[in-house]
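Students often ask why inverse folding is considered easier than folding. One informal answer: many sequences map to the same fold, so there is more than one right answer. In these notes we will look at a single instance of the problem. The structure comes first.
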């Protein structure tokens, strides 16, 4: 039975993965089709001893499999894990290890076979490999720039500065009674001032959806309510009721503010991932700005004709993109 031909895109990916996963001493590298013969048992023993010492020198990076004697290291499985979807990267490494190990073994076997057939020298493969290599270099370079600049200390400083600069946010908890006319609202206020219980009155007379809850609206921020209602509710002290009806597009309200509280900012641990994402983007943006500024870039249309671009002013050329700071408070 004839072996089905490899697709070119698959060949490119497998070859690149072989280079990345195999590394020094990896399986694909070890496929020496024209290796010089070992003439003596002593030479073979010396080579085996050297390989064994090299393996032992990889502290914390144990061999987790061998293919025809060629080692696969734990670090190669960890590199494979970086390509997992986010939800799977959260799983314990031991849980995904068997699947990842099989993937690495399969890719090494196929990459070695591709190399044996000489397909890695195909011009189209080489062209695509070069493009993939550039993308990998791009990712690795920027990733290292982020690692250097986005440190734990930098993240904490950003967090502390933003907590200090963020305005305090307050929430009010209130009940209300909504009626259609001002006359009805005035009459309800008179009843409440004469001792009627607010929640029971709201249940009996309010036309709003909160009537079933005794008019309870729960906690809300100022911007969550229409302005006239929010102004009245936040102007009251806990336990106070509006003396006059408040008009909105929904009707006439009598408002009882039960509590006012200040929202504490999220902890550093709660905001750490978002801070890291924002700072990483800033580092990448700044680095690309620096590289573009120091390079003469000429652009062309798809047909090769020059692109006519408006000339930027000197001020515009020197303006670095501004970061978009994270709001600490909700």
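Output (designed amino acids):
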């Amino acid at each position: 039975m004839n072996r089905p031909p490899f697709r070119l895109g698959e060949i490119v990916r497998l070859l690149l993965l072989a280079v990345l996963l195999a590394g020094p001493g990896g399986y694909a590298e070890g496929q020496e089709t024209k290796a010089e013969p070992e003439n003596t048992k002593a030479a073979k023993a010396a080579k085996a001893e050297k390989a064994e010492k090299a393996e032992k020198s990889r502290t914390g990076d144990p061999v987790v499999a061998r293919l025809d004697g060629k080692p696969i290291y734990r670090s190669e499985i960890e590199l494979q894990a970086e390509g997992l979807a986010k939800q799977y990267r959260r799983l314990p490494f031991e849980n995904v290890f068997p699947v990842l190990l099989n993937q690495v073994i399969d890719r090494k076997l196929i990459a070695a076979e591709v190399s044996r057939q000489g397909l890695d020298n195909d011009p189209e493969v080489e062209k695509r490999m070069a493009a993939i290599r550039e993308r990998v270099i791009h990712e690795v370079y920027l990733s290292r720039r982020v690692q250097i600049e986005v440190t734990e200390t930098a993240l904490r400083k950003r967090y502390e500065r933003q907590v200090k600069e963020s305005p305090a946010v307050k929430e009010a908890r209130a009940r209300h009674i909504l009626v259609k006319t001002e006359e009805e609202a005035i009459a309800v206020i008179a009843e409440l001032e004469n001792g009627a219980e607010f929640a029971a009155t709201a249940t009996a007379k309010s036309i709003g959806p909160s009537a079933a809850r005794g008019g309870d609206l729960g906690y809300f921020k100022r911007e969550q309510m229409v302005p006239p209602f929010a102004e009245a509710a936040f102007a009251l002290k806990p336990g106070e009721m509006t003396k006059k009806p408040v008009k909105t597009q929904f009707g006439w309200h009598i408002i009882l503010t039960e509590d006012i509280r200040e929202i504490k900012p999220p902890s550093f641990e709660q905001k750490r991932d978002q801070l890291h994402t924002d700072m990483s983007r800033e580092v990448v943006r700044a680095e690309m700005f620096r590289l573009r500024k120091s390079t003469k870039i000429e652009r062309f249309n798809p047909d090769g004709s020059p692109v006519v671009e408006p000339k930027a002013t000197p001020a515009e050329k020197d303006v670095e993109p501004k970061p978009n700071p994270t709001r600490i408070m909700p």
